[in-house]
């Protein structure tokens, strides 16, 4: 059961039963903490709500879920042979709204409604705005979404169709954030709202449950704001505390594009935080985040687990997108393809061994990017 919110930097405790954004002392993200005694392994719903005992929603409206979560974990045998690696894909293309952002939106919106919040505002690279606008519509909440003008067109249409107010902004997600300063609604931007991460952490629970309550050696994640990576790490720590897993945690790998790689740069330089990446651009739009608010948490998670951070080029991403479709019949989103490029790179350097069991996240549906050339 949800107990309180805790600052990820200074540890200060905050009340979880009223709307909260950042820590009132140090303006860092807040993490949900639970009473983890007496929780049994999940049974029930074939969706992320099977983990409701470690989710923040106190009373779930049974009609709210669209069936988000519990996506397949599939082996990629032909690609594994080609890469001389052992690769499994967690396929988030099957989630409502066509990206894993629906996990964060389902849990975040359900909790917002429970806390009496009437509307949300959010800057987005596309998929998060689409998911939050649609789930907000489902919950009867208002929403105002700001998006860079070159975000995937389909995500604009999802936002508009939901009845949300959409603001199109020149520049990056950082500029989109500034375009919402005048809007007087709850700020649900990445990590300024504590419950999106709770929805995304369920990917970590599912991977472990689907492997028979066992962890893989490595998890490779396309990192923008880093919420999924932080969430998976949080899930692994909670499962260890629950006694559901033991031993070493998987090595967590953050993948970025060479066109926007603030986490890779900070990791390589041994820094605790990233610096703003100027003129950020990548076709893998979901990971085009020049300065993630949770950079220090991402870097801690990678280092604590003995993981690493890699940057791959957009050309390599496009090539691996085509290769995966050809060998496996799987049409990855560009962010998902970046994880394959990272596996290729890390096998080349020897960081990954041939028998390491590697889980990669395909964070969205390839068909959401119809204008992207291969
Ligand atoms: C948002 C997004 C990402 C990055 O997710 P974070 O958790 O913010 O790092 C990766 N892939 C896709 C398709 C996305 O929409
Ligand atoms: Zn703090």
Written description of the protein model:
The protein is of the alpha/beta class and 374 residues long. It has a domain at 73-99 and 197-368: 3-Layer(aba) Sandwich (Rossmann fold), CATH 3.40.50.1100. Helix content is 34%, strand content 17%. The protein is built from eleven helices and 13 strands. α3 (127-139) packs parallel to α4, α6 packs across α7 (227-242) and α10 (314-328) packs across α11 (334-349). 55% of the residues are buried. The model has no long low-confidence stretch (mean pLDDT 97). Zinc ion binds at residues 7, 9-10, 12, 23, 25-26, 28. Zinc ion binds next to loops.
Helix-strand blueprint:
Blueprint: E1 2-7, E2 13-14, E3 30-34, E4 73-75, H1 77-83, E5 86-91, H2 101-114, E6 119-123, H3 127-139, E7 142-148, H4 153-161, E8 165-169, H5 173-178, E9 186-187, H6 196-210, E10 218-222, H7 227-242, E11 251-257, H8 262-268, H9 295-304, E12 308-312, H10 314-328, H11 334-349, E13 357-362
Parallel strand pairs: 5-13, 6-7, 6-9, 7-8, 10-11, 10-13, 11-12
Antiparallel strand pairs: 1-2, 1-3, 4-5
Helix pairs in contact: 2-3, 2-6, 3-4, 6-7, 10-11
The protein binds pyridoxal-5'-phosphate (PLP) and zinc ion (ZN).
Pyridoxal-5'-phosphate is lined by residues 99, 101, 127-128, 190, 222-228, 286-287, 333, 335, 363-364.
Pfam family, one: PALP
Domain Tryptophan synthase beta chain-like PALP: 65-364
Protein name: Threonine synthase
């Amino acid at each position: 059961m949800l107990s309180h919110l805790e600052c990820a930097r200074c540890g200060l405790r905050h009340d979880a039963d009223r709307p909260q954004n950042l820590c009132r002392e140090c303006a860092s993200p807040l993490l949900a903490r639970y009473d983890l005694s007496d929780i049994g392994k999940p049974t029930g719903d074939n969706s992320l709500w099977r983990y409701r005992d470690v989710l923040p929603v106190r009373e779930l409206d049974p009609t709210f879920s669209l069936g988000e979560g519990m996506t397949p974990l599939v082996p990629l045998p032909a690609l594994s042979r080609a890469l001389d690696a052992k690769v499994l894909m967690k396929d988030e293309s099957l989630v409502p709204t066509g990206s894993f952002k629906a996990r964060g939106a389902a849990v975040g919106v359900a909790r917002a409604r429970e806390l009496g919040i009437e509307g949300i505002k959010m800057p987005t690279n596309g998929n998060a705005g689409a998911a939050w606008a649609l789930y907000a519509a489902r919950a009867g909440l208002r929403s105002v979404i700001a998006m860079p003008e070159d975000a995937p067109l389909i995500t604009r249409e999802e936002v508009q169709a939901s009845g949300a107010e959409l603001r199109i902004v020149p520049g990056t997600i950082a500029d989109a954030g500034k375009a919402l300063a005048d809007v007087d609604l709850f700020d649900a931007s990445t990590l300024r709202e504590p419950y999106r991460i709770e929805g995304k952490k369920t990917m970590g629970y599912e991977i472990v449950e689907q492997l028979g309550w066992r962890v893989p050696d490595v998890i490779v994640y396309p990192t923008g704001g880093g919420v999924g990576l932080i969430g998976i790490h949080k899930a692994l720590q909670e499962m260890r505390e629950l006694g559901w897993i033991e031993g070493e945690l998987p090595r967590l790998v953050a993948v970025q594009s060479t066109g926007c790689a603030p986490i890779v740069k900070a990791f390589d330089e041994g820094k605790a935080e990233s610096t703003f990446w100027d003129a950020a651009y990548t076709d893998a739009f979901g990971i085009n985040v020049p300065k993630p608010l949770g950079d220090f948490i991402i870097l801690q998670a990678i280092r604590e687990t003995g993981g690493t951070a890699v940057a791959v080029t957009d050309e390599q991403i496009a090539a691996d997108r085509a290769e995966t479709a050809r060998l496996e019949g799987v049409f990855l989103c560009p962010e998902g393809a970046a994880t394959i490029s990272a596996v290729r790179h890390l096998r080349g350097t020897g960081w990954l061994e041939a028998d390491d069991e590697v889980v990669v996240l395909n964070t969205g549906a390839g068909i959401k990017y119809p204008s992207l050339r291969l």
